[in-house]
Structures
1.
Amino acid sequence: MDRFSAAERALRTAAPHELLDAVRHVLMEHYQATSVELLMADYAMTILQPVAALPYTAEPVSVHNSAPGRAFGAQEPYLRTSSHPPAVTAHLPVTVRGDRLGVLCVTLPEETGTPDVVRELQDVSEVLGHEIVVAERDTDLYLQARRADRLTLAAEMQWQLLPGRSCSRTEYDLGAQLEPAYAIYGDNFDWSTSADHLTLTVSNGMGEGIEAALLTNLAINALRNARRAGLSLADQACLADQAIYGQHHGAVHLSVLLLRFNLSTGQVEVVDAGSPKVWRIRDGVVEPIELEAQLPLGMFEETIYTPQHLQVLPGDRLLFVSDGVYNVASPQGERYIQNALARAATNTRLLPPSQVPRAILQELTGHRGPSQSEDDAMVVCLDWHGREH
């Protein structure tokens, strides 16, 4: 058995909470590693925290100005050398289908840190990422390592509902973020992909705290139930609308934007049921996409929803934002939607979609100023590449 196969087997046979111990043991035995550390990205995507000494973990490192942070941001191995003793530390992104989980840091004797070995270690970190995703069904270890602070109960419910925070395929790249990360309650996003379609849901729940989280949970699961039953996009909206109205009888509602992308043609079917909005960046021009707004889900009994159609082109970037982004006013009273959002979209045009939401939300904080309270805020970024025929 070669050493990569030994590492892969060790990870696949390890107990869910022992993945780090398993990868550390096999890397020390087969690759002469002297140190192996796993860092997990926190919910705010600003720090990387060691999977150690949980639930409090060890001292975190910054995503923005550290060697592991460089590997995490660039999504490429980053090497650092030291001379006493001569050694090389490989910082390797741990990522699953574009969803950035963290960084694996492996220190090797200088003579063994060859490019071929680094490529093998990157493959090991990819296997580790897949095993972490599977292990999270059975252990809290890796979720605890992501926490720089305690989550509110509403935030716990919302984060558990998400499919991930980024996703990549040949046809597209997706990235998304919610803020305040540790106290989010109503905003949410969801996506699902198949051989020929991408379905994307961006929602903005009414209310605060647990009530908002419960409402969003009901809506997202109703939409998933309808989607998995093979219903059309309009019927998915109708079923979720009936579920919310049946539970709350019009007392609360949920705004949602439903989109279904044809991966072959770039044709997009859209149901706009409320306040989330979409901007398009095409050939450097930032502009809002005006849709026919229909009633939010759950407002009235048996609402009928009618889909609209758009066309996306290779090179297009779409930004989806909640009202906690575009409605935010500066201390001078200027709403973010007026000028600042277009500036933020332009300023982040060279960043990959996985990094765009975080960057825009940081600019939003500066626009808001220190005196205003922080509402739910959500940004989803989609880069469309299309499919070669």
2.
Amino acid sequence: MSKLRNRLLLSLGLVLLSTPAMSEKLGLGRPALPEELAAWDVAVLPDGKGLKPGSGDVLTGEEVFGEKCAVCHGEFAEGIDSWPVLAGGDGTLTDRRPVKTIGSYWPHLSTVWDYVHRSMPFGEAQTVTVDETYAITAFLLYSNGLVDEDFTLSDKNFTEVTLPNADGFYPDDRPESEYPKFKGEPCMKDCGAPVKVTKRAIELNVTPEDPDGRPAGTLPPLDTSAATAPAPPAASAPAEVAEAANDPAPLPAATVPAADVPAVAPAAAQIETASLDPALVGQGEAAFKKCSACHKVGEGAKNGTGPVLNGIFGAAAGHAEKFKYSKALTDKAAEGLVWNEAELDAFLENPKGFMKGTKMAFAGLKKPDERAAIIAYLRSLGN
């Protein structure tokens, strides 16, 4: 560490050397004072060394994150455009396209705190106070489902928090295991027959591809991590469904193979789903990107930071299996809350105002048209 400090000082034109011996040997400068070294020695280590005294809670962190970080990382830390996603990705490190976030990949909380405090926000580094840094870090822990919403992070309890991938790294042993192999005298003769390049890999068709036709290992858009929802029925479906409901005569047996016949739903439910405006559903699917960092939908979707939303429309609150809901929501569920259009609209507009104590860390959707589109999209998903 001392060598790194000296290089940094010298690169900045400072000739403050860490020891009198170095000063005498080079014949310039003077030994750096302890306080001068301390001003540069600002790294925070995994054991908490270097932390500044202070504290910050999740709710404060949500406000600060929304003000200073959300423009790049999204309201839910889901990432915007090419800016990195900071939440989610649990259990994806063994996938062909892992989602590496603070919750799924980073091994040490000290790295989060140190990076935020010294390097963020982008273009305005070091404008975040110590307490704000603790609050942002607490919010990021909450966004990854690692702490509850009433959690307060401080220099006192900092080392009590262990990130899920803390054991996923090991010390770099290359200086001992690999470097010695490259220190011998190189062989510069009789290396083998000449190699002649005849064709490119693309011409030989040996470049591996993923099922989607892209080169293997290409990162996917973050909003497509869950399966795509089924396309809504055509606009003419209501009349057809209504006609079928009024006409008891069955279709000829040869019209549709028996194996392809879907389960029959009540005619009213079919009409309600079919009556959705396809354009509105499409708008809702696009707007749902704001939700997809926490909530998954479609076939094979699993609970993440938030519960799966398949079949939420018309369902009783708290219906997702194996998801730990907040006490606020379980209380509402006990009171008989059903997610109809009015309740969903009110919740999406102001989650914390609608349900005080909710775990949903989101300020809400203020545009009525956007809420209506997302509700239409959720209706289209069915059960």
